[in-house]
Amino acid sequence: xxxxxxxxxxxxxxxxxxxxxxxxxxxxxxxxxxxxxxxxxxxxxxxxxxxxxxxxxxxxxxxxxxxxxxxxxxxxxxxxxxxxxxxxxxxxxxxxxxxxxxxxxxxxxxxxxxxxxxxxxxxxxxxxxxxxxxxxxxxxxxxxxxxxxxxxxxxxxxxxxxxxxxxxxxxxxxxxxxxxxxxxxxxxxxxxxxxxxxxxxxxxxxxxxxxxxxxxxxxxxxxxxxxxxxxxxxxxxxxxxxxxxxxxxxxxxxxxxxxxxxxxxxxxxxxxxxxxxxxxxxxxxxxxxxxxxxxxxxxxxxxxxxxxxxxxxxxxxxxxxxxxxxxxxxxxxxxxxxxxxxxxxxxxxxxxxxxxxxxxxxxxxxxxxxxxxxxxxxxxxxxxxxxxxxxxxxxxxxxxxxxxxxxxxxxxxxxxxxxxxxxxxxxxxxxxxxxxxxxxxxxxxxxxxxxxxxxxxxxxxxxxxxxxxxxxxxxxxxxxxxxxxxxxxxxxxxxxxxxxxxxxxxxxxxxxxxx
Length: 515
Hints:
This protein has 515 residues and is mainly α. It has helices at 5-14, 19-33, 37-51, 58-71, 74-86, 92-108, 111-128, 133-144, 154-163, 167-173, 175-195, 213-242, 249-271, 276-286, 290-300, 306-324, 330-364, 366-375, 381-398, 401-418, 423-436, 445-454, 458-464, 466-481, 484-492, 504-508.
């Protein structure tokens, strides 16, 4: 009888009850009427124990870092940086919008923050440049879903905590899918440019740029370190596939010295190919864009956990905004803390309720019943993955990504791991699919945010966004049926936990366990 809490939960959701209360009331009510008062006490105790977690502390710190960077005027610098690179293309401001979302994703990890911050800047600029308001709002909403895919990602932290997976592995697995969504949207804009006569544009570089000496030298050093790191990553990837051993000791330091010298001369060679204003715009983008590099770099080289990386990100964001850019005052910081605290509290309460909900799922036998139902549809894992994508896409139309992951993750995750899908691969399938749902009518949250920012009707934006949603659906199926897309980066970084004697394909796409 306890299993009836699931239909009750759906009914409560459909009448408009907030998710957190539905998560607690439905299982609590069914536990009470079945006479399991002891289980009822455990249910509500799990709300606190679900929040009381060190790894989960990464969530509020990443939110705080994103809020500090946004309030510190970083959004304007990202837009200028994107305009310098993409503004000269046909449909240039639409391309700038997408590239800005890719860069902003490394700072906030939130689709709503992306739509709000970038939309308020780019939608009026696009409209002034000759784009229709509905098109500008649609591309802003469609590109904002990149935010929770490229790390840091709030929903991936939630999934990792609820399902007991590695946050670092999920972060690394999200890099290529996020970039792939962005590239797919750029290709679609280019295809639409001639057909819909999108405005032509010239390279937009603000003239007579100036940069403070401290920021100049910081960007000078950091640009060379970043390029050295990129060259190192390419070299390590080649070594992983060719079987060469990683340099050690003196050879390691010698290799790094050669790479940083090479990076310097490459940048000097590029320097002569662009204008002084273009160089200054790029230099002004270097310091803010170190946030995702610090997060991923610290995790990759093993000097910090994701939670520790989130606190370093906050410290770096404050250092840059207050002392380097001088764009954030301590008076502003109180409001930043308040906004971050409210956002974190709502998410953490949701997570606590989800852990309690997960307890009832485990004890009620609902997971086993649903597993038997799903596995009874087909024995082919590819068909099951196709069907589950359809289910997740429909769920994403009506439910936000966070609650959907919390509710469905404990039910669906074990089923697909048992049929041979790597848990990190399934996490990315689920996260990307439900994230795209944020921009999907009728209830996509970023559609409503874009509507508020642009003052355009939701239904008008929903029609204009359909070509971009088609691109994102194609990317979802590519990620689903080609695990190499998402799994190669965490495999190369050795975050999948595979034994050394297990090959690449066996690691990223394991065989189903035998009973």
